[in-house]
Structure formats: structure tokens, C-alpha cells
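Researcher: Re-running this chain for the archive, since the previous output was lost when a drive failed. Same request as before.
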Amino acid sequence: MTENKNKVDVKIFGEEYAIKANLPANYMKKLAAYVDTKMLEVAEKNYHQGVHKIAILTAINLSDEIFNLQRELKLAKAKLEQREKKGDTKR
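Model: Regenerated C-alpha cells:
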């Protein structure tokens, strides 16, 4: 089976990267831009840190965003299931 991988060149925190994935090129560019923005935000608060530490701090911040969104999604699903059990169709 042949995989159709798109390749895009992006810049994250001043470094050039070639990314290949089975994702639309514009989407990969958006992801890279988001990571770049987050790294710049972390660097503003931790200007004395090296790139490696800024990348790790950014990864922790992004993981926190993911965990919070997962928790919110779980709560929303639980509320929806509870409404469905009660037969409440209002949202």
C-alpha cells in the first residue's frame, strides 16, 4: 500500500524543518505556526533558557492544553449521556 505523504518546509523558533506526513500541507503549516507561537511565548518568560529547555517547557504547556481539553470533552460527554438517559433533548 502506497502512502501519499505531503512534505512542507516550516520554520519553528528560527529553525527550518521539512515535515512529511499524511496530513494536508496547510494543516501541517498551521501546526508548525502554533508550535512556533507557543515557543516564542515560553521564550519571552524564560529568555535565559536554551532552546532545548524552551522546547521542553513548550511541550509541557501543550500537554497541559491537551489534558485540559480531554477533561472538558469527557465532562461534556458525561453530561450529554446523562441528558440522554433522562430523555432530555434540550441542549
